[in-house]
């Protein structure tokens, strides 16, 4: 019998041996424990000394070294001798036993139950292997049933495909006869379409011959219109420059007018200077009006020329619809252009008023 020392610093009274606690023979049946070495101390409590590798306690994983056993199958064993505890725990291999333990962690005491199966490490290994083999057999049986079910489905699918193939053959024969008839009809239609294409190609060539001079004339008109637009853009820039100069001059004269209010003496000199500058501006405006008149005369010439060209183009519009739409668009743009430049009011210079001596009645236009 193996004797172990207490882990708690007290002299040992007795220890259940490995042989007695783990397995034994009784009445022809295999007796086994749960794979735990218990040790009873002088205070009467039975502690877990060691957990046997491969036993039920290690496999379950709840019991720890140092836990105190208090009951076996709900029977209290505190203070009982180890022989009583041994008889309660040992039993037929494969049966279960319920153990109740207490675990101390500082001042806290936790009580828990643990249900373990009696058996040796070899028993658990054979049990695991047996279960694995049974699972494999069940898996093979399931695969066999699935294979048989797939075979039955395949046979049904094969019969169905045979019927479909027969129907497809009959349908294919009918379609072949229909295709032959359609090919004959298509041959006749192709001959008619070829004749129509030859006639259409001949008509297209004749139309291209007629449209070539018109297209050339259209390109010439487009170039002329681009040149006129460029000239008009330059005229606009020149007019804008003159307006800007006039505005700058006006601002400068207004500044002079503000300076004139500082003193009566300088007022007369500044007024004369402003009138001189105003006369120059008016002369510039007269020149602008003359330039505007010349521009209007040129525009009238361009408009008359455009109307003549438009009368010629009206004949070509009957032949080609696309060219007519393009000329309409040009006509609309020219009309907007005329409205923008001919519809604006010409610039009018303010009427000259007699000079007034009073400062409040002086106004610079």
Question: How confident overall, as mean pLDDT?
Answer: 78
Order of helices and strands: EHEEEEHEEHEEEHHH
Oligomer: single chain
Distance between the termini: 135 Å
Helix content: 55-70%
Distinct helical segment count: 6
Mind telling me the C-alpha Rg?
60 Å
Q: How many beta strands in the DSSP annotation?
A: 10
Helix and strand composition category: alpha+beta
Strand content: 5-15%
Low-confidence runs? 1-14, 17-28, 345-349, 355-365
Task: Give an overview of the whole structure.
The protein is an alpha+beta fold and 365 residues long. The strands form two sheets. Strands 1, 4, 5, 6, 7, 9 and 10 form a seven-stranded antiparallel beta sheet that branches. A three-stranded antiparallel beta sheet has the order 2-3-8. β2 and β3 form a beta hairpin. α4 crosses α5 and α5 runs antiparallel to α6.
Which key terms come to mind for this protein?
disordered N terminus; disordered C terminus; 6 helices; elongated
Question: How do you describe this structure in short?
Answer:
With 365 residues, this protein is of the alpha+beta class. The protein has helices at 18-22, 56-60, 82-89, 121-260, 264-317, 321-342; strands spanning 14-15, 23-26, 29-32, 36-40, 46-51, 68-72, 75-76, 91-92, 96-105, 108-117.
Topology, pairings included?
Blueprint: E1 14-15, H1 18-22, E2 23-26, E3 29-32, E4 36-40, E5 46-51, H2 56-60, E6 68-72, E7 75-76, H3 82-89, E8 91-92, E9 96-105, E10 108-117, H4 121-260, H5 264-317, H6 321-342
Antiparallel strand pairs: 1-4, 2-3, 3-8, 4-5, 5-6, 6-7, 6-9, 9-10
Helix pairs in contact: 4-5, 5-6
């Amino acid at each position: 019998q193996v004797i172990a020392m207490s882990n708690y610093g007290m002299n040992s009274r007795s220890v259940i041996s490995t042989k007695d606690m783990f397995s034994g023979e009784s009445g022809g049946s295999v007796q086994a424990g749960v794979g735990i070495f218990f040790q009873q101390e002088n205070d009467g409590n039975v502690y877990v000394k060691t957990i046997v590798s491969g036993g039920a306690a290690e496999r379950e994983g709840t019991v720890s070294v140092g836990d105190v056993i208090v009951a076996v199958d709900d029977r209290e064993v505190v203070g009982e001798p180890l022989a009583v505890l041994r008889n309660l725990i040992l039993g037929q291999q494969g049966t279960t036993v319920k153990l109740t333990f207490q675990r101390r962690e500082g001042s806290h005491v936790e009580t828990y139950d643990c249900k373990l199966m009696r058996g040796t490490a070899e028993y658990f290994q054979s049990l695991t292997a047996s279960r694995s083999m049974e699972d494999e057999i069940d898996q093979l049986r399931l695969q066999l049933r699935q294979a048989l079910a797939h075979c039955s489905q395949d046979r049904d699918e094969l019969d169905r495909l045979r019927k479909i193939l027969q129907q497809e053959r009959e349908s294919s024969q009918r379609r072949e006869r229909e295709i032959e008839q359609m090919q004959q009809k298509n041959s006749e239609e192709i001959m008619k379409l070829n004749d129509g294409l030859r006639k259409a190609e001949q008509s297209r060539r004749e139309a291209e011959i007629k449209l070539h001079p018109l297209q050339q004339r259209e390109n010439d008109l487009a170039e002329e219109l681009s040149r006129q637009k460029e000239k008009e853009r330059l005229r606009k820039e020149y007019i804008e420059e003159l307006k800007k100069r006039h505005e700058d001059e006006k601002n400068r004269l207004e500044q002079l007018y503000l300076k004139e209010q500082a003193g009566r003496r300088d007022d007369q000199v500044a007024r004369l200077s402003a009138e001189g500058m105003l006369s120059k501006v008016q002369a510039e405006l007269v020149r602008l009006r003359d330039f505007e008149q010349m521009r209007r005369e040129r525009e009238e010439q361009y408009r008359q020329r455009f109307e003549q060209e438009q009368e010629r183009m009206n004949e070509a519009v009957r032949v080609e619809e696309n060219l007519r739409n393009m000329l309409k668009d040009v006509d609309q743009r020219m009309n907007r252009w005329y409205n923008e430049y001919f519809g604006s009011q010409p610039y009018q210079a303010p009427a000259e008023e007699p000079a007034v001596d009073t400062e409040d009645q002086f106004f610079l236009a």
